[in-house]
TrEMBL record:
This is Antibiotic biosynthesis monooxygenase. It comes from the Bacteria. Keywords: Monooxygenase, Oxidoreductase. It comes from Microbulbifer aggregans. Residues 3-95 form the ABM domain. GO terms for molecular function: monooxygenase activity. The keyword Lipid biosynthesis does not apply. SUPFAM superfamilies: Dimeric alpha+beta barrel.
Length: 106
């Protein structure tokens, strides 16, 4: 089964959408996909309840692939580039997938 990570970001300036757009413009998820063979899927989402909060959720083949990303110089450069934009409360959650359901299509 896969390994999921969820990065919850609440920018200090209170503008979650602007910070999320900066993250998108910087191509953070795309670079993870291009750099790490174990990257499977990624999404950037704005909270429906809190306009100051956005989330980056990614799926990896396993925890080792995620750790490879954490130690990647590409990720380090992204963090450096976005240091002025993405400040404030940042929380990372990790999950091991134990059950998956998808609809069947004919």
């Amino acid at each position: 089964m896969s390994f999921w990570t969820m990065l919850m970001i609440k920018p200090q300036d209170g503008n979650g959408e602007a910070a999320a757009q900066a993250h998108i413009k910087r191509r953070c998820v795309e670079e993870a996909a291009e750099t790490i063979p174990g990257f499977l899927h990624g999404e950037t989402m704005l909270s429906a309840e809190d306009p100051d909060l956005f989330c980056v959720m990614c799926t990896w083949v396993d925890e080792a692939a995620y750790k490879e990303w954490q130690n990647s110089p590409v990720r380090a450069k992204q963090s450096e580039d976005l240091a002025d934009v993405i400040t404030g409360e940042i929380k990372t959650l990790s999950f091991n997938s134990i059950h998956t359901v998808a609809p069947t299509r004919d």
